[in-house]
Amino acid sequence: MGAAPASACGGVHSPEQSGAPTPMLGGMHTPSGLRWGGSVTGRPPLRSTRGGMEKKEKAVAGERQARVADRIRVVLAERLEKGLRDPRLGFVTITDVRVTGDLQHASVFYTVMGDEAHRADTAAALKSATGMLRSEVGKNLNTRLTPSLEFILDAIPENADHISALLREARERDESVAGLAASAAYAGDADPYVKPREDDDEDAADDDLDEDDAPRA
């Protein structure tokens, strides 16, 4: 009859009843399971992984953009290789395709052989066939929406042709100058300031003879 009464928690005595010391936090009693950092289990708090997830999502989106752009380039190149019914279309080469982040617009860069008139006719033909070419792209893409197409003349080959023309002109001028130099003749003697060595030897020999012929005193 002298036994101590059990607690309400299944017969487990609280720290106050058992006499066990309790940890202190700023001078106040805390439950025995509480640790610094606010974790009751004693584990460190989880760090935010938002930054790593954002980088991974951007990398995945960039890879998808590249795949879609490359697929569009292949589809358009194959379709244009078959030709269009528009006689204005020249010999076109697709050089690059760039797709926006939402995959709703594609800028298609191309080159065309010929002069300015050929480039203008080809631009008009591509603009007229944009709808048909977009439908062709949509059939070969696994995307929810088919991106709009914009054809842009690539200026890099034109700059390369201009540089090649300048180099060709410079080479022709160098060849012309070299030809004039090879056929040029001296206005006077080849080297009027240098006396041949043979003449110096002959003059020295004449001076010796003169000394020998001179009367001795």
Describe this structure in words.
The chain has 217 residues and is mainly α. It has a domain at 56-158: 2-Layer Sandwich (GMP Synthetase, Chain A, domain 3). Helix content is 48%, strand content 12%. It contains six helices and five strands, in the order αββαββααβαα. It has helices at residues 15-18, 50-82, 116-128, 130-139, 156-183, 197-213, and strands spanning 24-25, 28-29, 92-99, 105-112, 148-153. The chain has a three-stranded mixed sheet with strand order 3-4-5. A hairpin with a 2-residue loop joins strand 1 and strand 2. The longest helix is centred in the N-terminal third of the chain and has 33 residues, at 50-82. Mean pLDDT is 74; it is low at 4-12 and 32-39. It holds the Pfam family RBFA. One of its GO terms (molecular function) is ribosomal small subunit binding. It comes from Microbacterium testaceum (Aureobacterium testaceum). One of its GO terms (cellular component) is cytosol. Residues 1-62, 188-217 are annotated as: Disordered.
